[in-house]
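In this supplementary section we document a worked example of the pipeline. Step one takes a protein sequence of length 472 as its only input; no multiple sequence alignment statistics are reported here. Step two produces a three-dimensional model, which step three serialises into structure tokens for compact storage. The input and output of this example are shown verbatim.
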Amino acid sequence: MADIEEDRPLLAAEAGDEDSLSGGEESGRVGRPLPAICDPAHVLHRVVVLVFMCFLGFGSYFCYDNPASLQTEVLQDLNLNTAKFMQLYAWYSWPNVILCFFGGFLIDRVFGIRLGTIIFSLFVCIGQLIFATGALVNRFWLMEIGRFIFGIGGESLAVAQNTYAVNWFKGKELNLVFGLQLSMARLGSTVNMNIMGWVYSKVTLLIGAPGHTTLGCSFMIAAVTCIFSLICALVLAFLDKRAEKILQKEQGKTGEVIQLTDVKDFPLPLWIIFIICVSYYVAIFPFIGLGQVFFIEKFDFSPAEARAVNSIVYIISAPASPVLGFLVDKTGRNVIWVMCAVCTTLASHMMLAFTFWTPWIGMSLLGLSYSLLACALWPMVAFVVPEHQLGTAYGFMQSVQNLGLALIAMAAGAILDTKGYLFLQVFFCSCICIALVAVVMLYFVDYLRGGDLNRSAAARAKLLKEATSEAE
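The serialised model returned by step three reads:
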């Protein structure tokens, strides 16, 4: 944005501004105000933009877990073992080990937010179409290439989505917008988990028999959601370009300044946060990727019931994330909240591994703890590194997370093929135990350094007020 626009959200345009935002281009007459829905400074127009913004990543999140939603069918129709199946998730993560550092740079310096969003959406669409084609012709190597291309676009598209949010809603609305975007992402994953089995059954009736052709057609139908998200990217580009002309603002920037040399200056608490991030998330996403068959084999669920219980993590996360984020904002004590989330996750995995209690209980606990950890862990990065290093810190955090997910996805498939689900669950419990040990370490390291990460919200606000007074 231009300097005059940076310090206030567009939503907060004053009434006097609306006279200057007359639609000379739109109406042909200078001085005639735009209708509310067409005025970039009006809340109604912002709501329209927010709708397209939320659906921008819907297709990416919907198709990310396509393999998990049809795990049984993929294994049977393509005659795969679990290790090969989990390669589909590993190939998604591999490009993002590097792209996490350069996604913001490409948006800021090379493509711009509008063109960058369209290009990343195209990568998602093309990747899903190649993935579906590979299933259609029964060529697994082609499916892997499709997932690799899909991964190139998926994570970078999330960066672009966040940049749009900051550009349009910088100010007090931003937290709400991020919460809505996260809820829409979880909605995409939930719909995928619960609808793809039905899609596969309908395609089977049309074709006459299950098989790789049916599987490929089902994935092709799923690609429609990616095309829909691409249309949203095109509409957003048009609306943002139009707002730039009317409001005389600049294209949005990610605010990320990546300097890899900053890594050597990272403090010890940040490295512990990285360990918590990796060891926690590798016990969540690979488990969900393999969950369907687990619930069928251990709990004798039907495929539809297995998909439903496997999606409960995302269903709970959609409404819980904004609520828990608000709770953490109001109370502070981030380290304690992270510790609670890790302990609850460990209890959930142990319940699923060593008991025959209904998995709805364990998976519901997993959904709550997963949401709580995301709300409490990621903001702590901003408490331990200066602002000019935030882009590098978050990029490195996402990079090591994707590296861990790629490696553990392959390891989980191999463990399941050779040792079975019980051993795999013990492995996931071990990963959570590593996260728990790291959280305890973080608590004591932070305590010795003054307790910045575990301050209450009131204490943090008081310190901020004192710092502001001193600066003035």
